[in-house]
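hey so i finally got around to running the thing on that chain from the lab meeting. sorry it took forever, my laptop kept dying and i had to restart like 3 times. anyway pasting the input first so we r on the same page abt which one it is
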Amino acid sequence: MRIIEWNCQGAFRLKNKEILDLRPDILIVPECEQEEKLQFGRLTPQPNDFLWYGDTGKKGIAIFSYSNYKFRLLKEFNSNFRYIVPLEVTDGTNSFLLFAIWAMDNKQNPLSRYIGQVWNAINYYQKSLQENSILIGDFNSNQIWDEKERVGNHTDVVNFLKLHNIESLYHKQYKEEHGKESRKTFFMYRKIERPYHIDYVFASKEIIKNGFNLKLEASEKWIDKSDHVPIVLDIQPFESKIISKNTYEGIASRHLNNLTDFTKSKFEQKIYESVILAKILDEEPEDKNKITKLINDIEILKQIDKLIIQLQKNET
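ok and heres what got predicted. didnt touch it at all, straight out
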């Protein structure tokens, strides 16, 4: 399987030939316009499956399948984390989780911008990370910026993922440390003399163990099209099936069962209401307002639980 990530810096419909010449099975494109502007079959070759997410039609993150792999957006998807999109990828026999990432600004909460968005997301999705997972995209981050104030910095993200047996494939392959990358993925203002390494692929140990090869395309070929170069990942076929149920009841159970006994006892009614709402959502046509309420209520309960744990630690 070949997975390619490329931040196209907009107007993908006008510059997709070269990236598709690399023959991706799955293609992740941050800063891509929405489907209407892509004009499949005319300006953009028709994919076998496609998903796009963004706040406006101008730029979002797009995921294309030019193979027999299909996508299913996880019902657990939380749009508060811009733009980190969790998908189940399956060919009908095998399946794994793909987190397509374009780490964005957060004007409402500057501490949660860029890598802070990734930090919040992986904490939210941590139960799902137990499945075979690939996290790939433009993280807009590097360890060299760790001193900037964030809810979680680059090193925090790397260490958290490692606890879940997920590691950066670039650093595994080239045996380099974070913050000391010799190969770069981003060239500010398209200037070769202003290079940074801010695009990454993280993968679960089973995927790593099965074999992979990661390549960064040469900047000279791509600098006229974008300030980023493509990341080309080839992974060996592997057997994998998603175990977690992609249901709202399953989501509620994964998150709420992990609360402390104290929180469960104090907020028993609220937890019960959330479980009932999740069951309703599984049985009825999806209602975006109800989905948002369920996700937000679960997050509030989790935040309360964290505060209670912290207060209990302070008392001791």
